[in-house]
Design brief:
The complex is a heterotrimer of chains A (105), B (551) and C (171). Helices cover 20% and strands 26% of the residues of chain A. Chain A has 105 residues and is of the alpha+beta class. Chain A has a 5-stranded antiparallel sheet. In chain A, strand 4 (67-77) and strand 5 (83-85) form a beta hairpin. The longest helix of chain A has 13 residues, at 50-62. Chain A is globular and about 45 Å long. Chain B folds into 4 domains: 6-109, Sulfite Reductase Hemoprotein, domain 2; 134-291, Sulfite Reductase Hemoprotein, domain 1 (2-Layer Sandwich); 306-397, Sulfite Reductase Hemoprotein, domain 2; 412-548, Sulfite Reductase Hemoprotein, domain 1 (2-Layer Sandwich), CATH 3.30.413.10. Chain B has helices at residues 6-28, 33-41, 65-78, 101-109, 143-153, 226-240, 251-258, 260-274, 283-291, 306-311, 315-324, 352-365, 388-397, 428-437, 441-447, 509-523, 531-538, 541-548; strands at 45-47, 52-57, 62-64, 82-85, 90-96, 127-128, 168-171, 185-191, 197-203, 215-222, 325-327, 333-338, 349-351, 369-372, 378-384, 412-413, 452-455, 469-476, 479-486, 498-499, 504-505. Chain B is globular and about 60 Å long. Chain C is 32% helix and 19% strand. Chain C has helices at 33-38, 40-45, 84-95, 113-119, 129-133, 135-139, 156-169; strands at 3-5, 8-10, 15-16, 29-32, 50-54, 72-77, 101-106, 123-125. Classes of the chains: A alpha+beta (105), B alpha+beta (551), C alpha/beta (171). The B-C interface holds B 5, 7-8, 10-11, 14, 17-18, 22, 30, 35, 38-39, 121, 151-152, 154-162, 235, 238-239, 243, 273, 277-279, 284-285, 288-289 and C 80-84, 86-88, 90, 95, 109, 111, 114-116, 118-119, 130, 141-149, 155-157, 159-161, 164-165.
Chain lengths: 105, 551, 171
């Protein structure tokens, strides 16, 4: 769960996505194959090589107005093709807190 | 309470309008994120895992009921109905939308609250003793000086881009409730032989990756000179503090690398040039600020009113009173701590409804005033003793009368990996599990004073180094692990805890803490010997043996 | 990079002499600190104003002996996040009473204009055209100031004490 801020060299070891937060409201978003953003992990573009990851990240970072803090995050592809977050941090970002909110949504 | 005048209000509105313009330029793309980031941080806006987080200052921990209601309003209108009180007399909202922030700030400005410099490499919220002005034996009210410093440090033209953040705390009591020794500058108000007010100035304290306890740089700086002396420290720091490495940029590293004598000499030289300047506070200036603090018109009340005698038959009331009610400097009054640490709850969180209830109760029972302490609890500072039974009933109904103040389940915790983008591990679920393990308040009472502090990463927002038991979340091969220290403390005897052994996985933390507590119960000299004193007497070894014998 | 001087967009009269480049025989020049310190007397003797670009990590003591003969000092903000030049500016104006042009260079952005003016800068090499255009409007953002600096703006505290004084003096 190394902070993405420390993500210096880009080298991925498994399927990955590019994620960020939406500028105007901070919502978690994922870069899509259609060169846009989606708040659903299921819509994310999957990259499997470091070159592709770099390219997808560059494209995401270029959208400085729309998104902030873009970085590459690992995912796991389930047998049924479903995309799952690759670590606890991403799980929390995608699924929400592991605790109940003081005021139920 | 400090009352803002027209000038304070004008400045706040000007700041809000400036930020409104900055947000507008950011959303239109005129400002890049790189340029905007510092501007938003200077207004307390972070980006966290799920959303923006908005940190609002509660200078020296004093709130009026109007202000608390405004915080409840922000929680409701712009967030998800709750807020989180931090270890530095701030409140954080976790789900703010950037586009709505200027409006939230404008609403807060109406009641004299702001978020200026609650983040960024500038001078942060000036904090103080949450019992300031009401604690028995206090030298004088430190909030006068806190307010003078608040004004002086707000939008300072020279020190808004320091090497790193800079925190000042002030206490005027023998028992330090403001944790001044873990601040960049700690000020201990006292009087010299001539009865003049001044400060022992400490410098270079701080936690994080490289923790240090602050050292005394000058035993007495006269009150009139406090601004020029602080300015001298900051000028030396601004010029010589390291900017090449974020982990070495705090003043504590500069003080450590130069040594306190050399650093002190640099400051002294600078101060000699600065001391007789416009920064010198004459009596009129001090009086000006003092005059805008209002104090309650206390009644002459008996030490032991009938209401209290009668309520003493209720063991639940008595348990709460003995735990959460503290002596006040005026006879017939008490200071009441409101625990924000319910069993199973996230430490320091309060819902908008609770904030409104507290505001109503403060209007009825505490001259309209609320305090916020670094332990992430609130306090009503002026409660007439005769009102204690009625207050208790109302607090209990709102879930605010957990009788665990200063006990094992009164846990300080940062938001951790559930919210925070810097965290390596979760803090809140660990705290929640611990409060469940120690849910029996009678048992907790037998254990006595014991502070558990939890941080989800080395940045130490949960002050784990100075917890009697400190818990630090780390990451090992993608899993959450926790390092446990014991023997830390944040008060006048501030000390850093000692690691008791290898880190333990998430699922074992509560067991380990239970083992430590059991070891203490077996090892303590008598029931009067506090956990922290047993650790001091015996060292960590006996605890370590106990914890790791079976692991 | 537009220059804003004394509140207005102005023409930069100084030739910025790059390290190693020849020094023009006359006219105003702005030279780097090391170049200046190599032979300050020679530079100060030549016809034309001399300004020095002083880095933010170099002690001002070396510059102080020449201040009364310098027309300008340019301080540097390598990044707007690096605030060392604010201290240097205040020292030059308030301690060493430097009267010449005090110029901010580097990453000089709109949102720091007020701080810069308060610290004693009177000339700003503004990075963005748009920011320079917004100068007049930006510096009007604030009317209340808490700290006394050498810029002469009245602090909130002194306005208050004056007010109290006049109130108590009136019948």
């Amino acid at each position: 769960m190394t902070s993405p801020l420390e993500q210096k060299k880009i080298r991925i070891t498994g399927p990955s996505v590019v994620t960020a937060n939406r500028t105007h409201d901070g919502v978690v978003i994922y870069r899509t194959p259609q060169h846009g953003w989606s708040s659903r992990l299921a819509d994310a573009a999957i990259v499997r090589t470091s070159d592709d990851a770099r390219a997808l990240l560059a494209e995401a970072v270029a959208d400085d107005v729309g998104a902030i803090g873009a970085y590459i995050a690992p995912v796991a592809i389930k047998d049924n093709g479903e995309i799952a977050p690759g670590n606890l941090r991403e799980h929390i970002r995608s699924e929400g807190l592991t605790i109940e909110l003081p005021v139920p949504a | 309470m400090y009352a803002y005048d027209e000038l304070d209000r004008t400045l706040l509105h000007e700041r809000v309008e400036e930020f409104r313009d900055q947000v507008k330029r950011r959303l239109s793309g005129e400002l890049t994120e790189d340029e905007f980031k510092i501007l938003r941080l200077q207004n307390g806006v972070y980006l966290q895992l799920h959303a923006y987080m908005f940190r609002v200052a509660i200078p020296y921990g004093t709130l009026s009921t109007k202000q608390l209601r405004a915080l409840a309003h922000v929680a409701r209108r712009y967030d998800r109905g709750y807020g989180h009180f931090t270890t530095r007399q701030n409140i954080q909202f976790n789900w703010i939308k950037l586009a709505e922030l200027p409006d939230a700030l404008a609403d807060l400005a109406e009641v004299g609250i702001h978020a200026m410099q609650t983040s960024g490499n500038n001078m942060r919220n000036v904090t103080s003793d949450q019992w300031a002005g009401v604690a028995p034996g206090e030298v004088e009210d430190p909030r006068i000086w806190s307010e003078l410093l608040r004004q002086h440090t707000t939008l300072h033209p020279e020190f808004s881009f320091l090497p790193r953040k800079f925190k000042i705390a002030i206490t005027a009591s023998e028992h330090d409730r403001a944790a001044i020794k873990i601040h960049d500058i700690g000020l201990r108000l006292h009087k010299n032989a001539d009865g003049e007010t001044g400060f022992e100035v400490l410098v270079g304290g701080g936690l994080g990756r490289t923790p240090f306890i602050a050292k005394t740089i000058k035993p007495f700086v006269h009150g009139r000179d406090i601004l020029s002396y602080v300015e001298a420290i900051l000028r030396v720091y601004n010029q010589y503090g390291r900017r090449d490495n974020i982990y070495k940029a705090r003043i504590k590293i500069l003080v450590h690398e130069l040594g306190i004598e050399k650093f002190g000499k640099e400051v002294e030289e600078e101060w000699q040039q600065l001391r007789d300047s416009a920064l010198t506070l004459d009596d009129g200036a001090i009086e000006e600020v003092r005059s805008r603090f209002s104090y309650p018109a206390y009644e002459k009340l008996p030490h032991m009113p009938d209401e209290l005698k009668q309520a003493a038959h209720d063991p639940l009331f008595e348990r709460w009173r003995k735990n959460s009610v503290f002596p006040h400097k005026v006879q017939g009054y008490s200071i009441v701590t409101l625990s924000l640490k319910p069993v199973g709850g996230p430490p320091g969180d309060a819902t908008a409804e609770q904030m409104d209830v507290i505001a109503d109760l403060a209007d009825r029972y505490s001259f309209g005033e609320i305090r916020v302490g670094h332990e992430q609890n609130l306090a009503l500072p002026h409660v007439a003793k005769r009102d204690l039974p009625a207050l208790w009933k109302a607090l209990d109904k709102a879930g605010l009368a957990t009788p665990n103040v200063n006990l094992v389940s009164d846990i300080i915790a940062c938001p951790g990996l559930d919210y925070c983008s810097l965290a390596n591990a979760r803090s809140i679920p660990i705290a929640q599990e611990l409060t469940r393990r120690f849910a029996n308040h009678d048992t907790a009472g037998l254990i006595g004073r014991l502070h558990i502090n939890i941080s989800g990463c080395i940045n130490a927002c949960g002050h784990h180094h100075v917890g009697h038991i400190g818990i630090l979340g780390v990451e090992k091969n993608g899993e959450e692990f926790y390092q446990i220290t014991i023997g830390g403390r944040a008060d006048e005897g501030a000390a850093l805890g000692t690691l008791i052994g290898p880190s333990v996985p998430y699922g074992e933390v509560a067991d380990v803490v239970e083992d430590i507590v059991e070891a203490y119960l077996a090892l303590r000299y008598s029931p009067d010997e506090l956990f922290i004193d047993t650790v001091k007497r015996l060292g960590v070894e006996p605890f370590k043996e106990r914890v790791y014998a079976t692991r | 990079m537009p220059l804003v001087k004394n509140g207005k967009i102005a023409t930069d009269i100084y030739a910025h002499v790059a390290d190693g480049a020849e020094i023009p025989a006359d006219g105003a020049i702005l030279v780097q600190a090391a170049r200046f310190l190599d032979d300050p007397e020679a530079l100060l003797r030549r016809p034309g104003k001399v300004g020095v670009v002083w880095p933010n990590n170099r002690d001002l003591d070396e510059l102080v002996p020449y201040l009364d003969r310098l027309a300008a000092v340019a301080l540097v903000f390598p990044s707007f996040r690096d605030g060392r030049a604010y201290s240097q500016a205040r020292l030059l104006r308030e301690r060493y009473r430097f009267q010449g042009e005090l110029r901010a260079t580097g990453q000089v952005l709109r949102d720091q204009f007020v701080f810069m003016l308060r610290a004693g800068f009177d000339a700003l090499d503004v990075k963005k055209e748009k920011d320079a255009d917004a100068f007049a409007e930006t510096v009007k953002r604030y009317t209340v100031f808490y700290q006394p600096t050498g810029d002469g703006r009245t602090t909130a505290l002194s306005r208050r004490t004056q007010l109290r004084h006049s109130e108590s003096a009136s019948p």
